Every structure is written in C-alpha cells, then in structure tokens.
Hints:
Blueprint: E1 7-14, E2 16-20, E3 25-27, E4 32-33, E5 37-41, E6 48-55, E7 66-69, E8 72-74, H1 79-98, E9 110-116, H2 127-141, H3 148-158, E10 170-174, E11 185-190, E12 198-204, H4 214-224, H5 227-248, H6 252-271, H7 282-298, E13 303-307, E14 313-318, H8 322-332, E15 337-340
Parallel strand pairs: 7-9
Antiparallel strand pairs: 1-6, 2-5, 3-4, 5-10, 6-9, 7-8, 10-11, 12-14, 12-15, 13-14
Helix pairs in contact: 1-2, 1-3, 2-3, 5-6, 7-8
Bound molecules: ligand 2P0.
Ligand 2P0 is lined by residues 18, 21-23, 31, 37, 127, 159-161, 214-215, 308-309.
Amino acid sequence: MSTDKVYRASTTAPVNIAVVKYWGKRDAKLNLPTNSSLSVTLSQADLRTLTTASCSASFPASEGDSLLLNGEPSDISGARTQACLRELRTRRAALEAADASLPKLSTYPLRLVSENNFPTAAGLASSAAGFAALVRAVANLYELKDTPSELSKIARQGSGSACRSLFGGYVAWRMGDKEDGTDSMADQVAEAAHWPDMRALILVVSAAKKGVSSSSGMQQTVATSGLFQQRITTVVPENMATMEKAIAERDFEKFAEVTMRDSNSFHATCADTYPPIFYMNDVSRAAIRAVETINEKAGRAVAAYTFDAGPNAVIYYQEKDTEAVVGTFYHVLQGAEITGWKNESIKGLKAS
Ligand code: 2P0
C-alpha cells in the first residue's frame, strides 16, 4: 500500500441551546458538571460546524496535528483539544493492536479543517458544535465503533456542552457520579420528529465576544454563590424531571415555564456570584418583556425565552404561533437581527 494515501472523513454537528442549563464543574480537568442539563438541537440547515479530518503517513511528522478554523490556522495545543485527540488515538490504537492488517492511522499527523455556517463573531455557542464535529470526524476517520453516547464522553472533555451536540432533537447530559467521568454522558430524550412544531428564533442582541468566559464564570459561581447550592440540589433536579415529562407530552406551556424559570435561575446565580456576573443587557430584558406581552395577549405561554452566557436571546415557540411570536418580535425589537430555525422565511430578516 502506498504510504502517500490520504485518509479522510467529514461530518457536521449542530448547535444546541439548553433549556435546563449546565453551569458549574465538579472537576474542571474532566469537565464533570455539578448538575445534569437538557438542550434542544437546532437545525443543521441554519447552524452547524462542518469538519473534515484527514491523516496520512505522507504528512510530515514535524508539522504535527493542525486545525484550520474558518480558513485560519487555530491553536490546538490546549489541554481540552489534546484530551479529545489523545482519547480518539488511544481507541484507534486499540483497534490496530487487535487487527494487524489495519493501517496505523493513530501514528499519522492529523489535519482538521472546520467551518461554521454562521458568523463566529455573532456570539452564538460555537464550541459545542465545534468539539462535537471534531470528535465525530476523527472517530469516522479512525472507523471507531463507539456509540454516540461513548463519543459524547470524549466531546465533553473538549467543551461540556459539546457532548449534547452528538445527538439531534432533545438531549440530556446526565451528570453521573463517578470520579473518572465514565458515567457523565449525553443521551437522546426524544427525536426532533417527536415535536415537529417546535421552532427557535435567535435574536442577535450583540455580536461582541462575552466579557467573562463560561469556564471561569462558572468556577466563580461555584466558589462564591450561596444560591447556586439551592440550584444544583433542588431547582435543577426538579426542572429536569418536569422538562422530560413536558417533552414526552408535547406540553408547550410546561416546556415554556421550565425553560424561562431555568434561564432566570441560572442568571440569578450569576448575579449572586461575588463579584457578580451580568450576561444579559437592556435589550435582553426588553426581549423578556416582549415575551411576557406576547404570552399575556395570547392568554397562554406561546413563547419561551432563554439566555446563555451572553445577551443574545433564543425564543422557543410552536409553528402554529409564528404570527403571534415572530410577528411581534419583528415589530418590537428594532435593530436586532432575527434568524430563524428550520430555514423558515424569517431567516436573516432585519427587524424594522
Ligand atoms: C449550557 N452554557 O448548558 C450552558 C448555559 C452557557 C450557559 O454550556 O467550560 O462552553 O467548555 O465546559 O460548554 C457554556 O459552557 O463550558 C454552556 P466548558 P461550555 O449550554
């Protein structure tokens, strides 16, 4: 066999937006969380990372592994990326040890090329899709037999929320209780097709990079917030159980209430961090008031807001309520960019 042969595999991974939030690590090295979390995976038509992994004996060993992210060379020497690549190589090496006829891909330098189909500068969660795509692309290249849940344990070490992007639909990340993290992984609660009416609107309030990174923000919260203890012992376990039931029953009002309460609880623990962390701004709060107005007018919860570690709002709603929800935002939030989920006609519209 020619040593010049280039082995290659490509994959895409979607962005996910949590409705029960991950915030807090019990082990920062292994990315083990202090609570379970649950997210909705967004359509890959709108937000996804495409990653191609290749390797060859002909790639100069002196160049080592490399990553081209959106056309720019990117540093992969960080501990998290290295942990992912090490785990993937170890699994490939085990296959090679068991079958001498397999090419020794685990010994070749890796070239990774990754592109987001959304502006990285938009301040949207890109690390989740990024690490999920990286792990699956290399796993495909190495022809690993691991299940998505097994791969989620590797992606988790790149970025916690990345473990949830290995699945579509409604996804839970079970925190687990083992010290080595072997039971801290994601599983699918329901397929997207289970609730075909579900939609998400993303309101890009600010494209600026966030002031406090998630990693350091959550460490400060764990260390200083008293409210956080109540969140992880009582609030989140209840929200996880109620949310799973709401999804199973396609109960949008319950889904909406838990989504909004959990976002509020997460941001309350941020405010209770010392010194406090503020991710939402005045426009974010205007979005919350707009959702409240929409729901009051409808006489039921037809829209649910949630905010991550930044000011951008994600609004969940059902297709039948598009006019009430998107129509109102279209008029209310002047100057904010509106992007839609599922390639709807609202994609890319400017509010006016
Ligand atoms: C989430 N966030 O559940 C929560 C809600 C932000 C707020 O997961 O340190 O980038 O890489 O494990 O995954 C953001 O945290 O943090 C996040 P690391 P990550 O989506």
